[in-house]
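SEQUENCE AND FOLD
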Amino acid sequence: MKTRDLIKNSIFILAILASIFSWIYTNNLVEQLKEQEQKNISLWAEAVREIEDVDFDGEISLIVYRIIQENTTIPVVMLSANNTLKAQNLEISEPSEEYMQKEMTRMEENRPPLIVEVSPGNHNIIYYEDSSLLKNLETFPIYQLIVGLIFITVAIIAMHLSNKTDQSMMMVGMSKETAHQLGTPISSLLAWIEILKTQNYQPELIEEVEKDVNRLVKITDRFSRIGNKPELKVENVYPILENSINYLKSRTSKNIEYIIEMPENKEIMIPINVSLFEWVIENICKNAIDAMQGKGTLTIKLFETKKHAKIEISDTGKGITKRNFNRIFKPGFTTKKHGWGLGLSLAHRIVNIYHKGKIYVRNSEIGKGTTFRINFPKK
């Protein structure tokens, strides 16, 4: 594992641990505060009993008064021994008896009331609920957990985007470097062709060599354009696809049978960059030929819907496992012994990003073959 990936994973794990620890700590804090409030209300109940026990001329401790007065947060309703209702810290400052009865019933549903004996056979019943502070703290861990999950989700997305950016930069860099390295030998080959032409040396052979060298020029130009926004023009995709297939047929094994299904004499107009479009078709077809190990059937279909031009390329090769349907489009992924694993990732970039289309594995079966589908929008 690379150091950068290790740092990213460590930050991700620390974020999860921090969220869990914070949630547990806040929960413990809520439980401690709840216990403290229960002790406070019990003390308040004792203070009330102390007041009711004192005779008319008796003295009441200042501490008792302070205990009662300092309860400014815990809502309380007390049913005294003589069936009178008293309340403190309710939402209404001067509640009616009917309101206090409703609050008393509601409080009893949430927690059992306190029974405070005033005298033998006489007792006060004290109904209470958590303070607003405690209620807020009880819901705080939920919000905290949600915030933690959002943070972790954002971290995952950021890591994913960072990886995609790294892959994209690597792909662009390798493409431009490849174009740069090919430039010099191609220029030399073009010069040698011109020399051979002047000597009238086997014109037919020179013509074929020239076609391939010009093809190399086009390929180099494609590599140099990766990373730049290509210019799209509305073109009839039919002849472009046909030319690409014909070029491949003349340069592949005779053991490859081509089946071409395209609408006859029909225009299917789409905005494309011709050079890049041809590259995608050639790339997928060459991958299909490699998968068939130079022997099998390659089927190319062109059809259209109201919004898209669709191309299906099917082979009778070794197939792709379902878990690799998406992975094959990632830079560097390859099942071949030799190769950079950039062909399909470049095709994906050209179709999905440059042409706002979609390329994907429509279906595949091990030992029977694979079908790729490419959708190009008409607008």
